[in-house]
Amino acid sequence: MAAQIVDSTDDRISRISSSIRVIPDFPKPGIMFQDITTLLLDPKAFKDTIDLFVERYKDQNINVVAGIEARGFIFGPPIALAIGAKFVPMRKPKKLPGEVISEEYSLEYGTDKMEMHVGAVKAGERALVVDDLIATGGTLSAAIRLLERVGVDVVECACVIELPELKGRDRLGDKPLFVLVS
Amino acid sequence: MSVCKEDDPRIDGIQSRIRVVPNFPKPGIMFQDITTLLLDPKAFKDTIDLFVERYKSKNITVVAGIEARGFIFGPPIALAIGAKFVPLRKPKKLPGKVFREEYDLEYGSDCLEMHVGAVESGERALVVDDLIATGGTLCAAMNLLERAGAEVVECACVIEIPDLKGRDRLKGKPLFVLVESQ
């Protein structure tokens, strides 16, 4: 069987980065929105994105991949499938049908809530939290708190994109963050 | 016409992992909860494999997934068959220019949007969601794709509620499901 040639990490990141579209003034003036839908239109870039995460996590005994609604649902499941982990959706209020635990978190104005099904994860499990992007880190830190409240060991947070100037990394406490594009 | 994979030995495992939650979101509705399926890596993998086996030789160039649970099943299928993934979203979530399709609910109406330029004329599309009930959302999804010039080859869902006759709302297009529920 012929050896499979995998592009270098740099080449893959370069392609991923250039496939992301920036939309000015969305959802409001002054915000440069990082649109990953264009990455999803490039099958090679999308596959490379997943591969880069899978290469990092496949030998780390991750039992759970938690993905944050909704764009975390796009990246989390393919990673979970490849590493043999469960996928747990972290959702906005009132979407999950069963008994939930919820965690409130701050927005620029006001608060929001994130929910997870009771029984989805067990104490002692090792988890990865996935979203498309980390900005202020509010949503990711809510997900970490939810998982830790039930005794899960959050090993790392993984995002395609980081907006470093918003210092989201600092809101993750002692949890490491892995991103592909900064 | 809907096709079902009753004879495949993997179906039992998949069906048994789906949790029914009574009276959600309102009294009288028996909600089909796929989150428990996602907690079983083998059953989740089998689910994806059953779709991939069906579609990998059908020259599908785009998999469209309906927010939010279609985002869980669509991307792994797209990745495995080398197709683009296009998210079909609730209003005001997509940052760029969109096509917008309104559809009726039991009371009132809702909207589904797709980015302009995501799909090119002549592309062969698969529409994916976790479940088909009345078929209203799937029909709106098909309309969006056809307005962009794509050919909808088939709709694919994990679960069908046959009594709601959703398959009759698919404008003659075929529906493929893994599990039927009463």
From TrEMBL, chain A:
Pfam families the record matches: Pribosyltran
Gene Ontology molecular function: adenine phosphoribosyltransferase activity
Keyword Membrane annotated: no
Entry keyword set: Cytoplasm, Glycosyltransferase, Purine salvage, Transferase
Pathway: Purine metabolism; AMP biosynthesis via salvage pathway; AMP from adenine: step 1/1
Alphabetical GO biological process terms: adenine salvage; purine ribonucleoside salvage
Cellular component GO terms held in the UniProt record: cytosol
Localisation: Cytoplasm
Main location: cytoplasm
Quaternary structure note: Homodimer.
NCBIfam families assigned to the protein according to its UniProt record, in alphabetical order: apt (TIGR01090), PRK02304.1-3 (NF002634), PRK02304.1-5 (NF002636)
Protein name per its UniProtKB record: adenine phosphoribosyltransferase
UniProtKB/TrEMBL annotation, chain B:
Molecular function GO terms recorded: adenine phosphoribosyltransferase activity
Domain of life where this protein originates: Eukaryota
Catalytic activity from the UniProt record: AMP + diphosphate = 5-phospho-alpha-D-ribose 1-diphosphate + adenine
Localization annotation: Cytoplasm
Keywords: Cytoplasm, Glycosyltransferase, Purine salvage, Transferase
Transmembrane portions of the chain: none
One cellular component term from this protein's GO annotations in UniProt: cytosol
E.C. designation(s): 2.4.2.7
Pathway(s) this gene product operates in, as recorded in its UniProt entry: Purine metabolism; AMP biosynthesis via salvage pathway; AMP from adenine: step 1/1
InterPro entries: Ade_phspho_trans, Adenine_PRTase, PRTase-like, PRTase_dom
GO biological process: adenine salvage; purine ribonucleoside salvage
Keyword Protein biosynthesis attributed: no
All copies of domain Phosphoribosyltransferase, residue ranges: 40-168
Pfam families tied to this protein: Pribosyltran (PF00156)
Major localisation: cytoplasm
SUPFAM superfamilies: PRTase-like (SSF53271)
NCBIfam families: apt (TIGR01090), PRK02304.1-3 (NF002634), PRK02304.1-5 (NF002636)
Subunit annotation: Homodimer.
Protein family membership: Belongs to the purine/pyrimidine phosphoribosyltransferase family.
Name under which the protein is recorded: adenine phosphoribosyltransferase
